[in-house]
Amino acid sequence: MTMRAKGEFDVKLAPLPLDDQSADPTLGRLSINKQFHGDLEATSKGEMLSAGSGVKGSAGYVAIERVTGSLHGRTGSFVLQHSGSMNRGLSQLSIAVVADSGTGDFAGLEGKMMIDIADGKHSYDFEYKFSEAPPSA
Q: What's the helix, strand, coil split of the chain in %, to 5?
């Protein structure tokens, strides 16, 4: 059964040094720290890699973040994988739970998250379900 969680989140991004100091200046690396509120009460930490271009409104990013907290009475952690792009202002974003990344009560968690930014506030809409636990090796 698919379930939904909604709420807001605060995010802090901070620049990190690139592994290759001579890399193209349009490349970036950032730390991610989030605080989720609402149905998902959690914190997350992760990293983002980004690339800009010489064309206004065109860029891309990938990110991984581990989310730890509670969701509708369950506790544990899981990992979100982001892939985002902008093509001259038209954006496309995919945020999904990494398969089998759930710990604790989040074992078997599957899902995707949408985010919205309006008037400087960030909100999320998380559609998720729990699959059967994988067989032991």
A: 0, 70, 30
